[in-house]
Specification:
Number of domains: 1
CATH superfamily: Alpha/Beta hydrolase fold, catalytic domain
CATH class: Alpha Beta
Order of helices and strands: EEHEHEHEHHHHHEHEHH
Radius of gyration: 17 Å
Largest sheet: 7 strands, mixed
CATH topology: Rossmann fold
Oligomer: single chain
CATH architecture: 3-Layer(aba) Sandwich
Strand content: 5-15%
Number of helices: 11
Helix content: 40-55%
Strand order of the largest sheet: 1-3-2-4-5-6-7
Mean pLDDT: 96
Shape: globular
Length: about 250
């Protein structure tokens, strides 16, 4: 149901979960650098890339994603592994670490208002507005989302090309199902302080709307490590060298 690719490398497995409207291409500039200290395990969300877009609600629930992550870990024969989530995917990985801390060596995440935003009314209003747009305008509404891949010239041409090719595979139905059934349970803001595993936030500080959530996360979890980079929301793409260096350092210390 969920596409999985296991890369070569040294060290523990590292689960990599992209955000909404992205794909395995989200991690393309990072895989070689990270493989020096880990074995990357790249998955694609339902409705994205090469993954399925089921009709039923249950596969999209956060708990169903957590169960699939656990199944992947068991299939790899790993007693514990590291995890990393980007944007929407960070809500899933942070929730996974809260549910199964004994299975996690450490976790990394990037800017994620869906995971850490503390105003549920605003989140719900945004979610419903996007769903209404899908119903009214279809795929055009999805392609107008701020995080839908577009040619910007900021990324390496091969990375940008792959993101755009994979964007054509995104299922409107799958994304809408994710917004209906994954998004409502994605926030861990009220539980983040209960995190028991070593945690690193690689923050793209150009995304101004996320910085209050970044500061609140530090106040809520004093053990949280933060590396601030001069990137935006997709900080691992904007600053791949800085992201790779921060994650390598974190994993080596684990």
């Amino acid at each position: 149901m969920m596409h999985v690719e296991v890369g070569a490398g040294r060290g523990p497995y590292l689960l990599l979960v992209h955000g909404i409207c992205s794909s395995r291409a989200q991690w393309r500039p990072n895989l070689a650098g990270l493989s020096e200290v880990c074995r990357p395990v790249v998955v694609e969300l339902l409705g994205h890339g090469r993954s399925a877009s089921p009709d039923d609600a249950e596969p999209y629930r956060v708990r169903a994603y957590v169960e699939r992550f656990e199944a992947i870990r068991r299939d790899l024969g790993a007693e514990r592994w590291a995890i990393c989530g980007q944007s929407f995917g960070a809500g899933l990985t942070l929730g996974y670490a809260l549910a199964h801390p004994d299975r996690i060596l450490g976790q990394v995440f990037t800017n994620s208002n869906s995971a850490l935003a503390r105003n549920p009314a605003v989140r719900e209003e945004t979610r419903l507005a996007r769903l209404a747009g899908f119903e009214e305008r279809g795929r055009a509404a999805m392609e107008a989302l701020p995080f839908y891949p577009k040619r910007s010239g900021r990324l390496a041409p091969d990375v940008e090309d792959e993101l755009l090719r994979d964007a054509e595979l995104i299922s409107l139905h799958g994304v809408a199902q994710g917004m209906r059934y994954t998004s409502p349970d994605l926030s861990v803001a009220d539980r983040f302080g209960q995190t028991r595993v070593p945690t690193l936030l690689v923050n793209g500080q150009r995304e101004k709307t996320f910085q209050p959530s970044r500061d609140a996360a530090v106040a809520t979890l004093p053990s949280l490590e933060v590396v601030d980079l001069e990137g935006g929301h997709p900080v691992n793409l904007d600053c791949p060298d800085g992201f790779n260096a921060a994650v390598r350092s974190f994993l080596r210390r684990l």
